[in-house]
Amino acid sequence: MAFRAVTTCSLFRPSPPPLLSSALRFFSSRSCRSHSLSLRYGIQIQTRSIQSLFDSVMEELRAARKRRQKRVSASASKMGLLNEELVEDRLVNRSLQKGLLLEFKKDSDKVLLAVAQRPDGKKNWMVSDQNGVTSSIKLQQVTYIVPGIDNFDQADITDFAQKAQDNMDPSLLEFAWVELLEKNKSVTVEELAEIIFGNTEPLESYSTHLLLSKDEVYFTVLETKGSRSIYGPRQSGQ
């Protein structure tokens, strides 16, 4: 029995004295608090570092955006000037000369074709119209000068006008409108004639002018100078 008691006691470690146990708990508590403080301040320092890095990145992005905006602004200004120059080139008027075929406004709701004959003073021209009437008109009355004609015979005006009327198919404008709307592109009469008729011959150009002058669905006038205009496709729903 004595042997068993000794053996059993030797298998278990004795409990520490109360004072030692209290000391262990004290130092353990201090160690945990110290670790907690280190962890908390470490997180704060790391958070501040991340915030500083984020601020630096955002500042660099803002600076890059400003530089890009300056480049875009400069490019837009240059493009605007280029477009203005192109518009001026496309709106160059052909000066009146004897033998040119032109359209002029007789009154507020009537236009006639005529052949230019000769100057009448400094600002007017004598013309012979499709009805065989010769009259003096102001340059402001001229609504279109048919390109590609230098010496038109006044006797052929009626036949020319009839052929132009035969080309009055509004569906031609619709096809061109779809194409130009997709490209967001403007056109002159001759440029549109090339699209819908495949050429810029006198008859096709004048037919295109007639189509545009009567159209209220597909195209609108963007710019006009004298007898020349630039047209743009109307937006859907207008």
From TrEMBL:
Residues 96-157 form the Ribonuclease II-like barrel domain. InterPro entries: RNase_II_barrel, WH_RNase_II. Residues 159-237 form the Ribonuclease II winged helix domain. Transmembrane segments: none annotated. Signal peptide: none annotated. This is Ribonuclease II, chloroplastic/mitochondrial. The lineage of its organism: Eukaryota, Viridiplantae, Streptophyta, Embryophyta, Tracheophyta.
